[in-house]
Amino acid sequence: MVRIGISVEGTTEERFVEMVLSPYLVQKQIYVTPISMGGDVKLDRVKSELKKMANSFDYVTTFYDFYGFKGKLQEDTKGSLEQKMFNHAHKSIQAKLVPYVQMYEFEGLLFTSPTAMHASLNQLNSDADVESWASEILSQFGHDPEKINDSPQTAPSKRLENNTNYRKTTHGPNIAKQIGIAQLREKCEGFDQWLDSLEALENNQHL
Question: In this predicted structure, what is the pLDDT of residue 122?
């Protein structure tokens, strides 16, 4: 058994962890608790938040959008941001920390299944249906949901908000739940590797 605190960006990610991630991981004796930052994710706030959380959990991890991370440099990548969070963290908690940044944001995961999106989002501001619309976007990015991001105007969440009846905190976790962890892991390499890292922590408890 291992207890992991997950620092998340906001309510949508908090509900995703509670509704989708937690039931999956609890079967593996991994108990996760999401703690929302309420937005405004930047290094100094992350450092303070993780230090507070570390007192209550065996390990701490993060689930922040790359798109919404404040103060990142133009040359920053997912890997460089994760390394910066690790380096910036208090030395006393680094052994308990698994930094993770979702590319490019939570809503990218939802494009894993245009069918699931269609089932929840029955309204599209065009003649096409949601499934066809989402499938076309996915194909433009090599069928990799974690690569969907052209600009701040066409990030996954903006595409959804501008073209469908998508409501972030309600539809987001519901669609992810319908997709299921297995399919998310199959289609989203970064997300899959993060879960691999969390599952390895439970194994560490028995060493």
Answer: 74
The one-character DSSP state at 68 is T
Confidence at residue 67, expressed as pLDDT on a 0 to 100 scale: 93
Q: How confident is the model at residue 153 (pLDDT cuts 50, 70, 90)?
A: confident
| CA distance to 8, 110, 192, 195, per residue, from 184 (Å) | 18, 8, 8, 11
Domain annotation for the chain: domains and CATH numbers: 2-105+189-204 (3.40.50), 106-181 (no CATH)
Contacts of 21 (CB under 8 A, 6+ apart): 6, 32, 181
CB 190 within 8 A of CB 145: no
Full-prediction pTM beyond 0.85? yes
Position 124 confidence tier, pLDDT thresholds 50, 70, 90:
confident
CB 94, CB 86: distance < 8 Å: yes
Task: From residue 161, give the alpha-carbon distance in Å to each of 19, 25, 43, 71, 203.
Answer: 22, 30, 28, 25, 40
Distance (Å, whole) CA 57 – CA 59: 5
